[in-house]
Amino acid sequence: MKKIIVSVAGWCEADPEKVRFQLIGSGKAYITGTEWLELPESGDENNLGRDDYILECAGTAFATALDGEYNHVDIEVEE
After folding, report:
1. Contact partners, residue 59, CB within 8 Å, separation at least 6
2. 76 domain residue, yes or no
3. Domain annotation covers residue 73
4. 75 domain-assigned
5. Which of 10, 12, 19, 23 lies most in the core, judged by the most C-beta atoms within 10 Å?
6. End-to-end C-alpha distance for the chain, whole angstroms
7. Which domain holds residue 32?
């Protein structure tokens, strides 16, 4: 079966209300980008910080972006 491989480099200004962040390690806790921005950069044993979360989906961030640019897009076919 052939595969299409897309390689992308770029950036976007994500809309904080349209992206979500997922808590690392402890179930499926999600917060909005707005909530994530209100957290301290690093957490401690009593409070979570931004570094306790990962972006749920970069595709959503790009699809709903306020601004952005693709610097590089390659498409390859693998056999």
Report:
1. none
2. no
3. no
4. no
5. 19
6. 6
7. 3-68
Find out whether 3 and 33 touch, Cβ atoms under 8 Å: no
> What is the number of alpha carbons within 13 Å of residue 45 lying toward its C-beta?
0
Report which of 58, 57, 65, 37 is spatially closest to residue 49, judged by C-alpha positions: 37
Distance of CA 54 to the CA centre of its chain: 7
Query: d(Cα 28, Cα 21) in Å, to the nearest integer?
Result: 10
In a domain, 79, yes or no: no
Q: How far apart are CA 39 and CA 58, in angstroms?
A: 20
* Residue given tokens 């491989």 in the structure block: 5
Q: Residue 28 — very low, low, confident or very high, per pLDDT cuts 50/70/90?
A: confident
pLDDT at 27: 64
For 66-79, what is the mean pLDDT?
Answer: 95
Average pLDDT, the chain: 94
